Amino acid sequence: MTKHLSRLALVAALSALVSGCALNNPNISELKSNPGRYYDRTVSIDGVVTDSWGTSVLPYRMYRVDDGTGEVTVLANSGHRMPSRGSRVHVKGRVNEVATFGGQSVGLHLREEKLDIRRGN
Q1: What is the mean pLDDT of the chain?
Q2: Is the CA virtual torsion 34, 35, 36, 40 positive or negative?
Q3: pTM of the predicted model, to two decimals?
Q4: How many domains does the chain divide into?
Q5: Residue 10 falls within a domain, yes or no?
Q6: Pairing mode, if any, of strands 104-106 and 99-101?
Q7: Whose C-alpha in 47, 56, 78, 98 is 20 to 30 A from the C-alpha of 15?
Q8: Beta strands at 88-96 and 104-106: parallel, antiparallel or unpaired
Q9: Is the pLDDT score of 34 beyond 80?
Q10: Please, what sign has the CA dihedral across residues 16, 19, 21, 24?
Q11: Cβ atoms within 10 Å, residue 45
């Protein structure tokens, strides 16, 4: 009986760990398909920068990241340097959107919390 409960507890703990990892590291397609699941949560994505915008005059700088399943816009943290097009990046950020109309997310984006630009593109 005790051995059975121990195995059950182990399976439950592993399931919680795996689902927690999926929640924190979704691919962009999953993020766009289920924006409500991730709204106002911090997630991490890996991908390639496809475009970037910003000037020193404007308070906002943005770049788009493609992980092979889709693209998402990232609002850059002014304290970090801006990644250039073609850079491989790991971005940690909070999921947000501009608005929701008819149940559809409009302006889904990440507010950058941490940026790692990978070497060896």
Answers
A1: 80
A2: positive
A3: 0.73
A4: 1
A5: no
A6: antiparallel
A7: 47
A8: unpaired
A9: yes
A10: negative
A11: 21
